[in-house]
Design goal:
The structure is a single chain. By secondary structure, the chain is an alpha/beta fold. The chain has a domain of about 230 residues: NADP-dependent oxidoreductase domain (TIM Barrel, Alpha-Beta Barrel). About 40% of the residues lie in helices and about 15% in strands. The chain is built from 13 helices and 10 strands. The longest helix is centred in the middle third of the chain and has 24 residues. The two termini are about 30 Å apart.
Length: about 350
């Protein structure tokens, strides 16, 4: 069963039944010891942070691929997405401006093909991360090989176990996927191994604590929501445990949903229609400043939907990053109203 076919989203995947592999792989699986470190440089004048034990340091702004998909996924009811060739130009423009961390996944529809077209000739100068969303260990290799082909590279910097696989397979099953990634790393098809998640933080914590991962892409924004869930207090505590353990183990920590996906970004005025438009314009700055308070975060993985998005994010990160009381009041007030909307209220609390 290929759970990454175009048109299969995370909800369909989670509804699909398959058995989690039995048995627990031993904790403390060794990570890459001698992966060649690329020379990645950038003149972009924004904060640079060390990316854990990978040997890299990047400008803190990363380029997320999930917001570049077709309208029903990435654009949340806004205008139609730019043409494919325009999205290729957007990715290349981000590279030319100095962005060096690029994240995508096979389930993000055309994201890998867009990034492959934009970056294949400069792959030695960027860090590209993708994901596997599969239900069986035997499907890992074919998924990674397809990503290599689509991204037009001979080696992917990092393959991450995608959150929906963790949600469905739990710790034991997900670690069997990890075992397959270790084989591919040892063959030289990937350099590093990661994991991702919007929730299931308790399972993620067990995986992080195994010592077998180099990086984690984790939902970490002011607004308390995952992909289609709201965080309970318990989930928030497990999220903090994930961050603390990942930092202790010197993993690269990538924050996603910094802008709450559709909450603090282009769609904010649609979320709370009667909110002051001038205040809405300040939401992205406040949300980015909130995450930037945490020195453990290595990269802000912010989705890019339209030309100009990268420039706006760069401008924020080149400015004063002090998180102010005004920022806190704005985020709290807007979020309180957003939590009461029908869409957010429809998300289960986990």
């Amino acid at each position: 069963m290929d759970c990454e076919r175009n048109g299969v989203d995370r909800r369909d995947f989670l509804k699909t039944g398959f058995g989690a592999a039995a048995g627990v792989l031993g904790a403390g699986v060794a990570t890459a010891q001698a992966a060649p470190v690329k020379t990645i440089t950038s003149d972009l004048k924004i904060p640079v942070r060390r990316f854990g034990k990978t040997g890299h340091s990047f400008p803190i702004l990363g380029h997320g691929g999930s917001a570049m998909m077709a309208k029903e996924y990435g654009y949340y009811g806004l205008s139609d997405p730019p043409a494919i060739e325009d999205r290729v130009k957007m990715v290349r423009d981000a590279y030319e401006k100095g962005i060096r961390y690029f994240d995508n996944a096979r389930i993000y529809q055309e994201s890998e093909s867009v990034m492959g077209e934009a970056l294949h000739d400069v792959a030695d100068h960027v860090y590209i991360a993708s994901k596997v969303l599969v239900g069986e260990p035997g499907e890992v290799r074919s998924s990674v090989e397809k990503s290599l082909e689509t991204l037009k590279v001979s080696r992917i910097d990092c393959i991450q176990i995608h959150g929906p696989s963790i949600e469905r397979l739990k710790f034991e099953g997900a670690m069997h996927l990890h075992a397959e990634l270790v084989k591919l790393r040892d063959e030289g098809l990937i350099r590093f191994i990661g994991l991702t998640g919007h929730n299931a933080f308790e399972e993620m914590y067990q995986m992080i604590a195994s010592g077998g991962f180099d990086q984690v892409l984790i939902e970490y924004g002011y607004f308390r929501k995952g992909y289609n869930t709201r965080h309970s207090d318990t989930s928030m505590e497990w999220r903090e445990a994930c961050l603390a353990k990942a930092h202790e183990l010197d993993m690269g920590i990538v924050a996603m949903k910094v802008l709450g996906a559709w909450v603090f970004n282009h769609n904010a005025q649609n979320v709370v229609p009667d909110y002051d438009p001038e205040a809405v314009k300040r939401l992205p700055t406040a949300a980015i400043r909130w995450v930037m308070q945490d020195p453990r975060v290595s990269v802000l993985n912010i989705g890019v939907s339209y030309p100009g998005d990268v420039d706006k994010n760069i401008a924020i990160l080149q400015g004063d990053l002090t998180f102010t009381n005004e920022d806190r009041l704005l985020l709290a007030d807007f979020s309180a109203k957003a939590y009461l909307t029908e869409r957010v209220q429809g998300f289960p609390v986990v």
